Amino acid sequence: MGLLNRGNIKEKPDRMHKPGKALPKLSGAWIKGLKKNQKLPEYITENVSEELIHLEDLVKIYDTGALKVLGLKRINLTIHRGEFVAIMGQSGSGKSTLMNILGCLDRPSMGHYYLDGVDVAAMNPDELSLIRNRKIGFVFQSFNLISRTSALKNVELPMTYARKNKRFREQRARELLERVGLGKRAEHMPNELSGGQRQRVAIARALANEPPLLLADEPTGNLDTAASVEIMELFSQLHKEGTTVVVVTHEEEIAAFTERIIRFRDGQILSDCPNVPRKPGEEG
Q1: How far is CA 4 from the centre of its chain?
Q2: Of 36, 41, 50, 113, most Cβ neighbours within 10 A?
Q3: pLDDT tens digits, one per residue of 80-104
């Protein structure tokens, strides 16, 4: 599908799309937004593995000087494309350490991390930066929006780093805001939005470069119950459309929306079990 012309974008009511209904399809032509003659490495442009995440004997050691702390202990884990997974554990369990490694924000001390079939454990900082921009979409507890920039410009930001042209960035950002139910809030500043709306802007931003992996770190931690349910139902809808979603949480009510729950304790996987996801509108 080609890019939408700005004049053809119809504004919809400013509300979340109802679960079970298909969300508006997005343009699949994001590569066309690249500047001419820009070449990307093969590991960025090709999807080479149905095993989107594959960890082999992954170890993380923190050296504090006086002693060494084992953060992750020989983790072996595979997450396939299209899965909806919760990673759970209390503080100090290793779940946040794993999240940082999965997001290429940190490196393992030993072992291998294959993302989309490519071992990223030994990549240099520039390569990891490119991976983060093109392969991973991040959603954080504190939203991490730029306060003096509109919702539209916040969503455009990853595409700016990816060197997409201005016209493409704006069109796609508007598409994404429509997709998360904020078409009429595109020009609003973050302080003019509720917590749930700000998190929806953050989700739209995470989807900007069509990453195969969406990582959400305690995405409902700053939201009330109603907004938390809306956000998790949006993640559920994205999952149904094929996005791989990994949510780190300590809340059972949030993990209940996913189809697989991995529990951590003391830097190890305690359990890894399928889950029957909570249905939209179902009481927690």
Answers
A1: 24
A2: 113
A3: 999 999 999 998 899 999 999 999 9
